[in-house]
Design a protein that fits this description.
heterodimer; A: 453 residues; alpha/beta; Fumarate Reductase Iron-sulfur Protein, Chain B, domain 2; Rossmann fold; 3 domains; six-stranded parallel β-sheet; four-stranded mixed β-sheet; 23 helices; 51% helix; globular; B: 252 residues; 2 domains; four-stranded parallel β-sheet; 13 helices
Chain lengths: 453, 252
Amino acid sequence: MRSPRVEENARKVSPEATASVRSATAAVTLARQNALPAYFKDVDRATAHAAAIKDYVLDNLGSLLEQLEGNCQANGIQVHWAQHAASANKIIGDICARSAPGGIVVKAKSMATEEIHLNHSLEAAGFEVVETDLGEYVVQIDHDRPSHIVAPIIHKNRREIAKSFEREGLGPYTEVPEELAMQARARLREKFQSAEIGISGVNFAVAESGRLVLLENEGNNRLSTTAPQVHIAVMGIEKVLPREGDLPLFLRLLAGSATGQKLGSYVHFISGPRRPDEIDGPRDVHLVLLDNGRTQVMAGKYKEILRCIRCGACQNVCPVYREASGHAYGHVYAGPIGAVLAPALEGVEKLGDLAKASTLCGACQEACPVQIPIPRMLLELRDDAYRAGVIHEGIPWGAFAFAASSSWRWRAGLKMLPVASTAPNPLKKGWTDSRAMPSRVGRSFRRWWNERS
Amino acid sequence: MSVAPRELESLAPKKPRVRLMLTCLCDAYFGEIGIATVKVLEHAGCEVLFDERQTCCGQPPFNAGDWDSARTVADRTVELFRTGEPIIVPSGSCTAMLREGYPMLFPKLGRLPAFELSEYLVRELGINSWPRRPLGNPKPMKIAFHRACHGRSIGLGDVQEFLLATVPGVELVRFDQEEQCCGFGGAFSATFTKVSAGIGREKLRNIVASGATVLASGDMGCLMHLGGLIEREGIPLKVMHFAEILAGALSE
């Protein structure tokens, strides 16, 4: 019997990576737990309110997106609709080719562009793509993959980053975080100055105003979206919010849940390209609305997963994520959110096994700022995946059910347990690899009960 | 005027009748936990019923995704336990299955009156210190209490620690990352071996660092997994179920 994919991958994760992930996720979890009650009188009410707004969005998505499109266009933002990853990549590639063939593209951190593997597509078309988020930059120069929604290099420690920077000739070897940041800053400044195109994600887009809202801490989003002549924003369609008035709640929930901050260091409200009387800003602003499976998710029982605002709090509290780290999931979306979102977007047949990579402890649901019932969805996905024949761990559950639905068969089975447990089976091996085999401790309850009555 | 004993009995407050769900783990391996649970409930003034036809709640196949097999087991358990009395379970996990899992299997099924042991003692019977009558000499114990995760979905909060803290001799110690899962997760523990054991070892490292000598929890699943690691690695921690500590306070 082969081990499940996340287990298999987790075995290759170094103890150093697990240690980095553990300490960082524990620290940011503590920050979140301190931050949210400080900013909200009643955190549960705030998250329930946010969940209700997101449900409203999902129930009215078509009309909200049309409203967003209309108001964006009125603001001078060109709106594009992409049904799949391939069409999104083509739209973006065409814009880039028109604007600056073979030029430099600077990118702010964006999960939507990770999802469609945009960098690969642009590089294949001859563009130099530069990630400008510090973590994403490290990922790029190391030919690695992001392992966390918010903190892409959560699996790396300072020494590894120092070595990479030295290798890339960014400056003399140093492990001082400030010095490392300055080295990256110097290199990235050159790119910002010469880039013709900037690509970003979108945290929220407001339907009633046609404004795009981005939250960040490093300032690279500001440079990516304002220095080049062309700005392309890529957004999953579920990121739309109805009103400007919804922003204070969502901005604080996102910052508090993602990093334990009151607000990101920079909040950008983008309401169009450079106006005639303005001295800087992009000449063209494009918004790419990405479906890529979302409307299909919306029609099914995993709809609530689209409430997600990509804060990463569920990854930070998840014991499996902490141990296995993000790469083990083998998908852009790792951890509890990924175990539901990935199969929901791409099919239970392909990725349903991810739903098994959970102890169902429920920490994710408790941490979620939009109250997504992740454990319930994981259970439902297991039901779907089992029926689709995707998950089988070699346990004859039918035989178990047969034994457990008759008292005499059950008791006979219990009597046989000491003998049966000496026989080899895959489950037993999995257990005894690291633990002592359980055995009967003390008296049998049934005998005790019969003797006393 | 004298009152006949028989009449006096009828005037006394009625003993709550409760139904014990032993759980398959206590049935197979940990009978003493079931015995302790009965002693605790009787000390709390309950009359305990036990239906010998019971088997398992059906959670193992449910979590595995084999809901047809889970329904076969659960359907029978519902029939056996739908008798009106509160169902007392020495496990938050099986309680959660009855309260949260069954409605997913049977959407039309009403809520079963299932209670995790501590929840029943504190929230239903209103017991706020243990034991109810002072007994014997307390044994000093430094306990790290692991809140089993299924307590989250049924809203247990700190109810077990609340009652344990009142047991003479018990000192509850805090430890780092208390709210983290132990990594058991049922069949997960055997199919995701490395991940499960890694999570468990991290939990035990934090507990050992707290100076506790006893690791207690309200769920034998967690304790079987952590106890297996403790035994294999020779960690100096004694493993005890919540019910054992309460029952232990009675037998001094």
